[in-house]
Amino acid sequence: MANQINLSFDEMWEKIIVCDRKYDGLFFTAVKTTKIYCRPSCRSRKPKKINVEFFFDFHEVEKAGYRPCKRCQPEVEHSPHIGLVKNVIAFLLNHYKQKLVLQDIANHVGVSSFYLERVFKQETAETPRTYLEKIRVDKAAYLLDKTMLTNLEICYDVGFQSPSNFYRVFRRLKNCSPNEYRALKEKELRS
């Protein structure tokens, strides 16, 4: 599939645990024991991690013998613009480390930057830039929790161009600094 995203199993698992709507349509959670698949944002009871597999296309998951969840209806696309939005989100997820401007994204999906920003905001309630910032902060939080990289290494690894912007955006989205976030995760691990 052309829009397959680069997320690890653990990253996708974290997205379904917090019911993250940003990833709806980009991947599907299939539960081996029930043979049901869901959107990442589904509010149904969460399965055991060992019983889960992920698919990037609903045709693939149905071909594998899974049926759609009746609660979140993952097979139903709710908007005529959902294909464009999915394409943009997949592009952002696959290129978040690069310096991106709106025109780069618009060129990739083949629409004007004005149209892209208007439709994207209408569908997601965010601009492509704020969405990209959320992706970068999610990746940074994952690295803070799972690695011993320094904050500066993480800042540049996830695509921020300056440490001050990284700290400002991280604090705005997570309500704490990267150091506070790492300390909180270490405290949770010890508990």
TrEMBL record:
<feature type="domain" description="HTH araC/xylS-type">
    <location>
        <begin position="86"/>
        <end position="184"/>
    </location>
</feature>
<dbReference type="GO" id="GO:0043565">
    <property type="term" value="F:sequence-specific DNA binding"/>
</dbReference>
<dbReference type="GO" id="GO:0032259">
    <property type="term" value="P:methylation"/>
</dbReference>
<keyword id="KW-0805">Transcription regulation</keyword>
<keyword id="KW-0489">Methyltransferase</keyword>
<dbReference type="Pfam" id="PF12833">
    <property type="entry name" value="HTH_18"/>
</dbReference>
<dbReference type="GO" id="GO:0008270">
    <property type="term" value="F:zinc ion binding"/>
</dbReference>
<keyword id="KW-0010">Activator</keyword>
<dbReference type="GO" id="GO:0003700">
    <property type="term" value="F:DNA-binding transcription factor activity"/>
</dbReference>
<dbReference type="GO" id="GO:0008168">
    <property type="term" value="F:methyltransferase activity"/>
</dbReference>
<dbReference type="InterPro" id="IPR035451">
    <property type="entry name" value="Ada-like_dom_sf"/>
</dbReference>
<keyword id="KW-0238">DNA-binding</keyword>
<dbReference type="InterPro" id="IPR009057">
    <property type="entry name" value="Homeodomain-like_sf"/>
</dbReference>
<dbReference type="GO" id="GO:0006281">
    <property type="term" value="P:DNA repair"/>
</dbReference>
<dbReference type="InterPro" id="IPR004026">
    <property type="entry name" value="Ada_DNA_repair_Zn-bd"/>
</dbReference>
<dbReference type="InterPro" id="IPR016220">
    <property type="entry name" value="Me-P-triester_DNA_alkyl-Trfase"/>
</dbReference>
<protein>
    <submittedName>
        <fullName>AraC family transcriptional regulator of adaptative response / methylphosphotriester-DNA alkyltransferase methyltransferase</fullName>
    </submittedName>
</protein>
<dbReference type="InterPro" id="IPR018060">
    <property type="entry name" value="HTH_AraC"/>
</dbReference>
<keyword id="KW-0804">Transcription</keyword>
<keyword id="KW-0808">Transferase</keyword>
<dbReference type="Pfam" id="PF02805">
    <property type="entry name" value="Ada_Zn_binding"/>
</dbReference>
